[in-house]
Every structure is written in structure tokens, then in C-alpha cells.
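[job 0412] stage=complex_fold ligand=iron/sulfur cluster status=START
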Amino acid sequence: MDNVELVVTRYDPEIDDFHRSQTFSVRAVPGMTVLDALVQVRDEQDGSLRFRESEPGGWSGSCAVTVNDVPCLASRTLLARVILNNSAVIGPLKNFPVICDLVVDNPIYLAKIEALEPWVDNAKEQPASMTREEYFRLRRTDGCALCGICDANSDEYLTDPMFIGAASLLWTYRLTSDSRDSFDRERMEAVLGSGGLWAFSGDTSSEDLCPYAIDPVNQIMRLRNAASQNGYVPTE
Ligand code: SF4
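[job 0412] stage=complex_fold status=DONE, emitting C-alpha cells
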């Protein structure tokens, strides 16, 4: 690859009234990721460019951005795969407030997860260990790094800005499906209100985009099925 263009969304709340685009020419090399390209821009052209990094492999899930309108982890996305007509358009995750440039407001997102008390609470002498069948069913969900990609890909926010979020529902499924947890009913009821489980349409293609192959849409639909089987119905 030769030089390629990165069209990057810029936004500094102290200067800009609106988001703007800035184009950078990047020296592309084989094996380069989108994150490598952003680092090159920051280190060699514009030290004011802000984005979140992650370790090689992106296991922390902290480097999610939008490339050509598709959310992905910058550290796991090869630049060569996203170059169209010698350029790629890079922006912040959709459905998140932008702090600056490519940095979105994760604390609000993480606070929603934290409010779920996302740990197994064995307060009522439930079984001390999960069954083998449970383990194999749920171990996939344990890989969620809270990268935000499934929420960035959720059209539910367009119709309901108060949507609880795909990751929150995934974690609710994880916990309510664990026989060691004592609060499955309380956890389920906590996501049944406005903007909750019934607001999730499952129409997004998040299952294809989750970098950890968790298939959040399918897991959340299991939560919906469990809610229906337990007699919960959508309210107006
Ligand atoms: S389910 Fe996948 S896409 Fe969604 S937050 Fe977790 S790791 Fe990211």
C-alpha cells in the first residue's frame, strides 16, 4: 500500500460548535491496523488528535470507533480491509456522547452496567456452582469487554433515546441465567420498563459485529423468551 487518506471526525468542545472532518495522509504498511494509522497521525502530524488506545489484540475493548460507518475495534481492524478509493472515514461510536474527536463518553455507559450490579449475588443459598450445561451456555457471554459496539449498532436509540442498551441487556441475560444468582426475578423486572427489554427489536446486525463473537442479539432474544415464558408481557 502507498499513502492513503484518513478522513477523521474532529471535535473540540472548547473550540467547535459542530463536528468537522480533517483529512490526513498516512504512510500505510502491510499489517497496519486502523489504530496504528491513528497513532501515526497523532505522533507525526497532529498531536491534538484524541482517541482511545488499547493493547495489541484489543482484548480490553477500549479502542472502538466507527470506520466507514461500521463500528469496530481500531486495534483489530486492518487498514487495508477498510480502504475504499484510497481512503477511510473514521468517526466516534454512534449513540454515545462525544467528549472530543474519537473519544466517547464511556463513564455514562459503564454506569448503566454498574447499576445492574453485574456480579453473581449468592445471597439466598442458591447452588454454589453452576451446572456444566450452564457453563457452556454462558461462557460465551463472559467474554464481553464492554466495547460499546453493539450499542453503537443499535437502531433502538433512534426511536427511544432512553434505551437501556444492548450490553446492559446482555449482562442481564448473563446474570438471570446463572442458577447461582439469587436475584433473577429482580434483575428481570429491572429491565422491563420503558426503554428496556421490550424496546429491543433485535433488528440490528450486532451479532456480526461483536469482536468477541458473543452474538449479543441472540443472547438478548433468549432473555426476551425467558421473560415471555415467565409471564411478563410488554406494557404500553
Ligand atoms: S456484547 Fe460484544 S459488541 Fe457488545 S459490548 Fe460486549 S463485547 Fe462489545
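The first helix runs from residue 34 to 44.
[job 0412] exit 0
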